[in-house]
Amino acid sequence: MEKQEILHDVLKKFRLPGPATLPAPYGNGLVNRSYVFSCRTSGRDERFLLQEINTCVFREPVRVMDNILMISRHIENRRNRKDSRERNGYLIPELVQAADGNYYIQDDKNRYWRIYRFVEHSRVLNEITHPDQAFEAAAMFGKFLRELAGLDPQLIHVTIPGFHDLSLRFAQLEQALKRDPSGRKTSCRKETEKAMACRNLEKEFISLVHEGRLTLRITHNDTKINNVLLDEHTGRGLCVIDLDTVMPSTVLSDFGDMMRTFVPSASEEEADTGKIMFRLPVFESMAGGFLSECGKLLTSAEKEYLVFGGKIMTLMQAIRFLTDYLNGDIYYTTERPGQNLQRARNQLKVLELFTEQEQVMQNLIRSML
Ligand code: GN1
Ligand code: MG
Predict the structure, then answer these.
(1) Which atom of ligand 1 is nearest to the CA of 160?
(2) What is the DSSP string of 118-171?
(3) CB-based burial label for 356 (10 Å; 0-12, 13-18, 19+)
(4) Most exposed among 276, 317, 336, 343, judged by the fewest C-beta atoms under 10 Å?
């Protein structure tokens, strides 16, 4: 079947408000495929986002959707209890129901699809260009954490076991080195050595997370800068997107991935590591925005380790890119050979900068409390 026919058949199974246009590819996520289309309803066009869930990554798509529904309902209930003036804004996007009552469909080839209402008048950033953007985006992720604090993390399914488990990520790297399925081991010896030299961080991480010194929360777990939408006119935070990895974890995951993607002056795709600078004003705004929303919620142990979270998440991402390079680029989408190795180098450089600036960041956080 032609792609367009497949997409057309999928759309028929959802409760859409009118006839739909042909879906066109959209966005640049590394995992799921997205398409945008619109429906004509009483004279105006309404846009929607169709997504095919990557079942190689999300092996239990129904549980992923269960999680998204659970948090959506929790947020919706809280909204309804609030004063109507506070109900503006989305926080998370709205799912469209399928004809069978579910919020996804499974097609005859075992592919899973879902549709979100498009968040209009919004803007995605791939890089932060002004500290105010960092404040707004971080405040949204802080709000997300706070909104979900009243929902029991035990109710949320672990859809990718060990997702932010540093020991597991090191073990996967070791396994890839041992098997070396693409014969790439020698071409990344320097990067491997650098990553392995950070094993000392693992012990501290284990003692913190696995021994329960940090509160288990429902976290987003993919708080990259391009997973939050800002208002295209005002620049205010509008909506948190990409909810697939919502799982129980610690605040280190969310603060850490923000720090990894907000603070460096270039994105994880930058090939020239010389262009990656540390930006203290961005860090300051980011931390300020995040704490303005959830500072009261966090324990002093959680606040003490926020910066450590940034180092851990950056190291983990370096290891994940490196492992995928060794495995022959089977997890992350790539456009050219060597791209995952280049991403790993980029992340190792970011980690170096974070290590140099650790004390400065730590002092700044303490001064905010
Ligand atoms: C993936 O789906 P996307 O592109 O937002 C990955 C994240 C990584 C990120 C690196 C399920 O996120 O964990 O941090 O790439 N998601 C999954 O860009 O593995
Ligand atoms: Mg994601």
Answers:
(1) 11
(2) --TTEEE-SS--SHHHHHHHHHHHHHHHHHTTTS-GGGS--SSTTTT-HHHHHH
(3) exposed
(4) 336
**The domain containing residue 302 runs over which residues?**
131-368
pLDDT tens for 346-365 read 999 999 999 999 999 999 99
Whether residues 262 and 301 share a domain: the answer is: yes
Looking at the fold, whether 106 and 220 belong to one and the same domain comes out as no
Residue 321, both tokens: 């890119």
How confident is residue 157, by pLDDT bands cut at 50, 70 and 90? Answer: very high
Ligand 1 centre to CA of 116 (Å) is: 19
DSSP β-bridge partners for residue 45? 40
Q: Which ligand is nearest to the CA of 56?
A: 1
- Among left, alpha and beta (phi > 0; psi -120 to 50; other), residue 104 is beta
Residues 107, 161 within the same domain: no
**Which residue(s) pair with 124 in the sheet?**
229
> Is 222 close to ligand 1, i.e. is its CB under 6 Å away?
yes
Give the pTM: 0.95
Q: Identify whether residues 104 and 164 lie together within a single domain.
A: no
